[in-house]
Amino acid sequence: MAGDRSPGVFLCRRRFGLLLLAAAGLCGGVSGVKNPSCHEVRTAFQIRQIGPLKLVPDVPTADSNLQICQHKVQTCCTRKMEESYQAAVRRERMENIQTLNFELKYMIVGHITAFQAAFESLLRFAENHTTSLFETVYRSMSKEAAEPVKELFTDISLYLLGAQTTVESVLFRFFDSLFPLVYSRLINPGMASLSEEYTECLRLTRQDINPFGLCSKEAVTKLEKSLWASRTFNQALGIGIEVLNATEHATLTKECSRALVKMQYCPHCQGLTLIRPCEGYCLNVMRGCFASISELDSQWREYIYTLEYLTNEMAGSHDLEAALLGIRNSINDAILHAQLNGPHLSATVDKVCGQPEEKEVRPLPDNIVQAKEVTETQALTMTHSNTLSSKRREFINYMKRSRTLYASLTERLCDGDLVMKDSSTCWNGEDVVESYTSRVVTNGMKAQINNPELKVRGMDPHVSNLIAKLQQFNQVSTQVSHST
């Protein structure tokens, strides 16, 4: 390549096939051939929807106002075109990442919808299963118990969706509402309708009187870990979407935008609309642009491990389906305990709340302690368990394949049609060459100090916050699970 090394002469001496045809218009303008034209540049500008065609000159000129694509030869670019190119590369990078993330994001969103639908179906089934206890065994209080049961499962649903409450407070609220009914309908079946004041006294003193013994606390223990795992898993899916959205809308610095324009569109200024960047050159630019994003790698890998851990926690002894269906038996155990200790409870209540006003005695059929504990769950064919389990397995197997999402992001951005892989020539930011000779840096912020293509000044604050959020979620998820 001795002698004149201008891009026009350089290309005119090589046989590029289509590349030579694309460059022919401007090549003639630079090397003295008749009818210099920016036709190919205009066509590419239009096809890629870079901006208004009026920005592209008809013929190459010597434009000294260029800030990025500064070449010694005549050019088809203007300062306004450079501004349009910067807007274009920012839009194209977002679209590229959206395309790369589409399948993963679709999978997560789809499973959020599917899991929530399965949760709702399961909760309705468990609520009906619990309601049937009162309709078949404790008929005297079935109508009044319907509302507390409904509130119980509504609170459980809100907890699963992330409401600021605890399993203990949810269940204790239910038992507070249940005690006045058990006391007036089962322990003292002839008792008149209770006044609001007396009912409230029973509610407020339920934990002190402890009419249900250890049954209420055991119910909390049985539900706590199963509900926690499902709640945390649901939160994890939301965090995954948040991370992907942040990746897609990451802010590109001024240095990055300029480097991307230099890599993708500065060749156009010389009429080289078909030439592509060298692979190593592209990797340096992308790794510099997405240095902050690549720092998500370690916490994203840990996030996938956390998902896998939660999936295992949601199976076996902490199976959500078994826990929700078991609420019926826990309530029945609590009621039986209260009935067996009826005389003692009545004496204690009389001391604390006094005696209610006596009205007409109404004998009720359920005033005898049940001879047989209702512990047998009917042989109901349920698809909820299989459905949720299979969805969880499918989901986690897919998510495992995304462990290297942020470690491989820059390689994927430089894959496909963007770079030259099977050609003997490529663009290195300054000229058309046979190979890229500069050092190719690795991913991450530290490595960018040696990046020859752009300077990386520091972490993106938004990405830093996201990394901290992921880290906190991963730590809390594993720590809390071991303490519940």
Automatic annotation (TrEMBL):
Its main location: membrane. This is Glypican-5-like isoform X2. PROSITE patterns: GLYPICAN. Coiled coil: none annotated. The keyword Signal applies. PANTHER family: GLYPICAN, GLYPICAN-5. One of its GO terms (biological process) is cell migration. Cell surface proteoglycan. It is a lipid-anchor; GPI-anchor. The keyword Lipoprotein applies. Pfam families: Glypican. It is found in: Cell membrane. Belongs to the glypican family. Keywords: Cell membrane, Glycoprotein, GPI-anchor, Heparan sulfate, Lipoprotein, Membrane, Proteoglycan, Signal. It comes from Podarcis lilfordi. One of its GO terms (cellular component) is extracellular region. Residues 1-32 form the signal peptide.
